[in-house]
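Prompt: I keep going back and forth on a fold encoding question. Comparing notes only helps if you start from a blank page. Show me how you would write down a chain together with its backbone fold. Please set it down just below, with no commentary around it:
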Amino acid sequence: MYASLVRRQLGGIVPPKIATPSILTSGSGSSLTPLVNFYSKLPKGPASTVSGGGIKARYFSGKNASAAPLVWTILGLFTFGYAIDYQKHHKNHPH
């Protein structure tokens, strides 16, 4: 196996200074001890859930689900559009 192929395949999962192509292709198990030590220190078990999760998780999912942000966004856009329309049509036309 070519060294560049090994480097490309393991580039995303193995840190480059721990698993060099010469260590991986030499065949000796004792030279893999830095790699084994590195992976033995990583946390085990399922990944913890990430808090936050964005706007959907905060406002529309779970026990605090509410349509209030959507209603306020629609009202805000309506108010903004009305203000622009008022400035266009009523500001320069006397009654």
Observations:
- DSSP finds five helices and no strands in the chain.
